[in-house]
Design goal:
eleven-stranded mixed beta sheet, about 45% helix, binds pseudouridine-5'-monophosphate, binds manganese (II) ion
Length: about 325
């Protein structure tokens, strides 16, 4: 693939399609926020997932930014999905979950692929999108010393210059080890209105963040300085789930423990682990974890749009 660069608004090539709206916004230095499709195809069930995708887009627009959902569509890496495509991703669980390593093979097969955090970052970077809102990043799994299960999201953060706005990492992961990994990879972790790294369903993990920022403007400034310095890996803006939507830590951690045990006894491994655990939690909590998950993704979408807007004004 030839280098994908903005030149006279033309950035598409054989393998990459950027929607007209996103191309124009980028050319005019207007804020664009990327969204992933794994959360749609594998993070929630239908129709929750469609509601989630559509609401994220609506929130981003309300804040004055342009949403760009990313996925592989008929053998092309597509940036800025149509509503019809969003519906397709939400109704087809058999669309494979695709990370960086899957992209070329899925494109070669002319198929569809749901982009993880890693692939969404990679594609966003190709198109020149600097901000990405999601739920939680993948990380070092509990027991990784035996399974080697460390999300490719962390490697992507180590090498791809996109700001990822998330609610920390799910407590299904080993959060202290995830933070250690990010430290080694040189990834700045910014707490947004918090000194404590958020644990997805709950506001605190008990692990500190490197730096705290309390406004979109301050976060944007840090991202700008990082860029100007030529520090070209990822950065995490960790936003706690809103207080009213936070789950009871004892309750959710108990459910997580049982879901992990079930994954283990059912022999679930590899990329099936995260979707399995999420679905299991949504089931055992009677939808409470899905509601919390939606609330935090909406909050992250709003925050990402605000930071992107502030960034464009710098
Ligand atoms: N966080 C969520 N829902 C999700 C995921 C994360 O709230 O569906 C997805 C993201 O796409 C992330 C992926 O990139 O799980 C991580 O998968 P793994 O642990 O296999 O790397
Ligand atoms: Mn994994």
């Amino acid at each position: 693939m030839s280098n994908v660069k903005m030149s006279n608004g033309k950035m598409n090539n054989e393998y990459l399609i950027v929607s007209e709206e996103v191309q124009v916004a980028l050319a005019e230095n207007r804020p664009v926020v990327a969204l992933e499709t794994t959360i749609i195809s594998h993070g929630f069930s239908y129709p929750d997932n469609l509601e989630c995708g559509r609401t994220c887009e609506k929130i981003i627009r309300e804040e004055g930014a342009i949403p760009a959902a990313i996925g592989i569509v008929k053998g092309k890496l597509k940036i800025g999905l149509t509503d019809q495509e969003l519906v397709y991703f939400s109704q087809n669980k058999e669309i494979p979950k695709c990370s960086r390593r899957d992209a070329a093979a899925v494109i070669a097969g002319d198929g569809y692929g749901a982009a993880t955090v890693a692939l969404t970052m990679m594609a966003a970077k190709m198109a020149g999108i600097q901000f990405f809102a999601t739920g939680g990043i993948g990380g070092v799994h509990r027991g990784a010393q035996d399974t080697f299960d460390i999300s490719a999201d962390l490697e992507e953060l180590a090498q791809t210059d996109v700001a990822v706005v998330c609610a920390g990492a799910k407590a299904i992961l080993d959060i202290p080890l995830t933070l250690e990994y990010l430290e080694t990879a040189g990834v700045t972790v910014l707490g947004f209105g918090t000194d404590d790294f958020p644990a997805f369903y709950t506001r605190k993990s008990g692990c500190g963040v490197d730096y705290r920022t309390d406004s979109a403007e301050d976060a944007a400034r840090i991202i700008k300085i990082k860029k100007n310095l030529g520090i070209n890996n990822g950065i995490i803006i960790a936003v706690p789930i809103p207080q009213n939507d936070e789950m009871n830590p004892i309750y959710i951690n108990d459910n997580i423990r049982r879901a992990l045990e079930k994954a283990d006894s059912s022999g679930i491994h590899g990329k099936a682990v995260t979707p399995f655990l999420l679905a299991e939690l949504h089931r055992t909590t009677g939808g409470k974890s899905a509601a919390a998950n939606k609330a935090l993704v909406y909050n992250n979408s709003r925050t990402a749009a605000k930071i992107a807007l502030a960034y464009c004004k710098l």
